[in-house]
Amino acid sequence: MSATTHTVVVRPSSVFSTEKKKGGAALLTSTAVTALAGVSTATTVSAVLDILSEVVEADCVVTSNSIGRATSVDNS
Q1: How many Cβ atoms are within 10 Å of 26's Cβ, its own excluded?
Q2: Which residues of the chain have pLDDT under 50?
Q3: Cα(54)–Cα(21) distance, rounded to whole angstroms?
């Protein structure tokens, strides 16, 4: 018996979704609009999804008083 090795391509996970409840309603940032303006027929779908994933990820940021667009107020 012999062992074989294979090349593995590691890709970052994508948060992109076309469903509005999962980020499809996120507004484009000026950075994303600029990046998308540079898209051509030589641009891969993966590259475009990376741009859109960054928008969705930014829309879901968690802080001390917010999760995405939802905010809370401590009334104690």
Answers
A1: 21
A2: none
A3: 16
The pair of structure tokens assigned to 60 is 């879901």
Candidates 52, 56, 34; CA nearest to 44 is 52
Confidence (pTM): 0.61
Distance CA 63, CA 44 (A): 33
Q: How far apart are CA 64 and CA 4, in angstroms?
A: 49
Structure tokens at 31: 């950075």
pLDDT for position 21: 66
| Residue 71 β-bridge partners | 66
- Copy the structure tokens of residue 62: 């968690």
